[in-house]
Amino acid sequence: MASLAAAVCVPSALYAQRFQGEIQQMLARDKTNPPPQGGILFIGSSIFRFWTHLSEQMAPLPVFNHAFGGSVTQDILDRADQLVFPYKPRIIVYYCGSNDVGGGEPAGAIIGRTKQFLKIAGERLPDTFVYYTAIQKAPDKRDRWDVVETVNREMERYSHQAKNLGFIDLNPVLFDKKGNVRMELFLPDELHFRPESTAYAEFAAVVKPILTKAWESRHP
């Protein structure tokens, strides 16, 4: 675990240049339009990256989005010093691990890196509350849903014992009342959502009340 902790300060050689252009664009944007210090940070991979109407759907909550597409849990560890800690968010909403699953990673490794991020966040931002958002059961990962389920159930369990940690599951949005995947929500890649679909509006209907309650309370 020590090596992962060090990776937050000095990105590993393997991952150091991943997404460098996108990260620099994000940081440049922050200089011209600074996100709110002490706001609500969304961090993670493309499911959050493509939440293009996040700010308006969460208004008036002070949210900002530092997700970057293609990221895995190691990338979030590596980039936390750039994209998380300087902004001192009061609340972090975390979604990552889907790309780890797609890359063949076992559940234990995904859980380990996720918990390492939470550990470091707790040390660096002791008053910040983190909402872990369950990995989604996208159709493209159907043959690895067992891994998705293992990670999600462990993180849900962990949320009940860890300090300043909550659990949000958006998977119910993806299934109809008969338990079938709502394929109409998805692009042909069976991972991301059609821009015209109601997926993100339905996600917002779940997430916004949770964040509003947390924001209005000293202790979410």
SSE topology:
Layout: H1 2-9, H2 20-32, E1 40-44, H3 46-49, H4 54-58, E2 63-65, H5 73-83, E3 91-95, H6 98-102, H7 107-124, E4 129-133, H8 145-159, E5 165-168, H9 199-216
Parallel strand pairs: 1-2, 1-3, 3-4, 4-5
Helix pairs in contact: 1-5, 5-7, 7-8
At the fold tier of CATH, the topology name is Rossmann fold
Question: Could you say which overall geometry the principal axes of the C-alpha atoms support?
Answer: globular
In the CATH hierarchy, the architecture is 3-Layer(aba) Sandwich
Strand arrangement within the widest β-sheet reads 2-1-3-4-5
- Detail the poorly predicted runs: 1-14
Q: What's the level 1 CATH class? A: Alpha Beta
Label the structural class. alpha/beta
- Number of DSSP E strands: 5
Q: How many separate domains make up the residues?
A: 1
Question: How much strand?
Answer: 5-15%
Overall pLDDT: 91
Molecular structure report:
Helix 1 (2-9) crosses helix 5. Helices cover 44% and strands 10% of the residues. Residues 1-14 have low confidence and may be disordered. The protein contains nine helices and five strands; from the N terminus they run H-H-E-H-H-E-H-E-H-H-E-H-E-H. With 220 residues, the chain is of the alpha/beta class. It starts with a helix and ends with a helix. Strands 2-1-3-4-5 form a five-stranded parallel β-sheet, with helices on both faces. The protein has one domain (2-216): SGNH hydrolase (Rossmann fold).
